[in-house]
Structures are given as structure tokens and as C-alpha cells.
Amino acid sequence: NIHKYGFSFIDNVPVSAENTEKLCDSIGYIRVTHYGGFWDFTTDLAMKDTAYSEIEIPSHTDGTYWEYTPYLQLFHLLFHDGEGGNTTLVDAFKCAEDMKREYPDHYMFLSTQKVDCHSLGDVYLAQSKRIFIHNDEGELIQVSWNNSDRSSNFGASNKDLQMFYQSIKIWNEIIHRDENVLNHRLKPGQALIFDNWRCLHARIGITTGKRRMC
Q: pTM for the full model?
């Protein structure tokens, strides 16, 4: 499913952080970052990261500010007694094909122009990379996009900046087309694993209730 669609659901997962971590370990090594290894969290406005908030988080990939972006990611909702917080997924490879077909010049620009990205939370990290990353044969292998972590590209010329903003406006419109967005409400006992190089993910705002995710 991951290779075909970019994501897969795993049902009948015991609803605990410990068992979810065992599931992760059975798939591969858990990568340790400045967030730690296995991550178990609830809403905490003292933390400098929107994941801990209740606000809507737009479609994005994680780790744009790391040189080596996380590949497989797994979410398991352990508890939520309220409303909102649905997860959305977007096949960024399909959207890239749409953009390449409809706006080839803008697609090519985002395949060559590096975007400054940074994390301004408890740890400062910065990296510059292209939104569309291809291998030596010209095949798209990764999409790197997080508007919330995008820094200012003041080093670019005025002409390139105009093209840049036109291009990301087009890209933003394509990834929000209704036919490109899958809306799913996660539930305890069902883990979601996805390819972070291919799938954009987002969270609809949490309106009520306590929510615990790992």
C-alpha cells in the first residue's frame, strides 16, 4: 500500500504507547532527532511547536529543515473525547504531475530553485532545498514542502522572487483541490503509516476535547 498509494492503515493495534512503539520497532529503527525518538504528546501550549496546539496545520511534509528528511512516519491516535483534529493526506507526486502538465515553467522553477527552511522552536535548524527533488535520471523522488517552516529567500533576485511566489501560489492551489485531498478521522487502534517524501499531511483544527497522539 505504501509503495502503491503512499500510505497504509494498520488495524487492531493495541491502544497504548508501548505497543505502538513495538510496532514501529518491528518495521525499522526509530530515528532519533531533537524531538527525541518515539514521540507521545498531548496539547501543551508551553511547547514551541504547532503539533502541540489545537490549531489547523496546513498540508506539509515534515523535516524540511533537515538535510535528510524523515521517510516513513507513523501516527496512532490513542485518545480523543472531542471533535475536530481530522487528518488529511495529499499525494504530492500526483499533484506534481498536475503542475508539470499544467504549468511546466513553474514546475521547472521549483525543481531548480532552493527554498530556505527553518525551525524556530526550542531548537533552531535551517536548510535549503528544492520543493521537487529528482534523481540523476530526472525521476521525481521527493517533495519537500512546508509553508509554515519556509524562511525568506532574500538572496534571490527580484525576477526570481516574483516567479517563486507565482509558483508556490499555483502549487498551493493544486494541493488543495478537493479531488487531491483525502480526509480521514484517525481512531484508537488504527495506525497510519505514510511516505513523508511523497505524501503531504495536515490536521484540521481541534474544536473540543483532550487528544493524545503518538
A: 0.87
